Amino acid sequence: MNKVFLYLYPMEEYNRIFLFPDEFYEEMRREKPFRVLNECIQKRYREKGYQVVYAMYPNKEIYGIKPMPVDKVIYTDIPFKEASGINEDGSKKSKDEIKYPNESYLINQLKDINEIVIGGFHFNSCVKRVAEYCYDNGIDTLVDLDLTDLFFHLYHKNSYFRKDEYDPDRYKKYLYDKQILEFEKDNFEENFKNRYGSPVYGFYEKENKKTR
Q1: Cβ(85)–Cβ(93) under 8 Å?
Q2: H or E element in which residue 100 lies
Q3: Environment class of residue 80 by beta-carbon count within 10 Å: exposed (0-12), middle (13-18) or buried (19+)?
Q4: How far apart are CA 127 and CA 145, in angstroms?
């Protein structure tokens, strides 16, 4: 297992909030998101020799994505109720009450990784944490921002989105051109780096990084 595409937590609790009635997609002349997401995983990763792996919480089922027989599923060390920001009674947890899955436990279920690309939920929390663990342990690591929770805001942007590839430079240019980040272009670079400064996003190198 040399090259891996790891998709974190594709379950109903995360995915369903982005869905609309079928009439919406027909009216907007937009493909349904999961059809595109499955096609992207196939074209970007399976067809290019990546082992596709899904990370799940125990007792949760994959939702929206159609795993192939060659795909693999790994599991977290904690149940979803411990990682969720919402208590079972519907109240919000404090930051101290929220737990994150152990990155080492997750990645140790994969063997002999030379390269890993990570997508899923959420790009600036769990995805980033797992990616930085991989990066800090000498694995060639990249977050495919197109295929994180940002996917549902990007996949129908025909001037930007490509099903068969992800290019960090193209992503950055798209944000600059469209001003998605809600600040003036004069401050773009500073604000962009504040949000995407981690080397796992592929825009900036980490100082004194380990040799891969």
Answers
A1: yes
A2: none
A3: middle
A4: 10
Residue in the structure block whose two tokens are 């020799």: 49
Q: Is residue 178 pLDDT above 80, yes or no?
A: no
Q: What is the helix (H) or strand (E) element at residue 107, kind and residue range? A: helix 103-107
- Segment (H or E) for 39: helix 33-44
Backbone angles phi, psi at 165, to 5 degrees: -160, 155
How distant, in Å, are the alpha carbons of 19, 93, 206 from that of 153? 12, 27, 28
Residue 175 contacts by C-beta under 8 Å, 6 or more apart in sequence?
A: 181, 192
Q: Identify whether the C-beta of residue 76 lies closer than 8 Å to the C-beta of residue 106.
A: yes
pTM, two decimals, is 0.91
Average pLDDT, the chain: 91
Which residue spans within the chain are E strands per DSSP?
Answer: 3-8, 51-56, 72-75, 115-120, 140-148
Best CA proximity match to 155, nearest among 43, 5, 8: 43
Comparing C-alpha atoms, which of 2, 205, 17, 199 is closest to residue 121?
17
Q: Count CA atoms within 13 Å of residue 201 on its CB side.
A: 20
Report how far apart the first and last C-alpha atoms of the chain are (Å, whole number).
17
Q: What is the pLDDT of residues 78-87, one digit of tens each?
A: 999 998 888 8
- d(CA 20, CA 38) in angstroms, rounded, equals 18
Gap between the Cα atoms of 80 and 74, Å rounded: 14
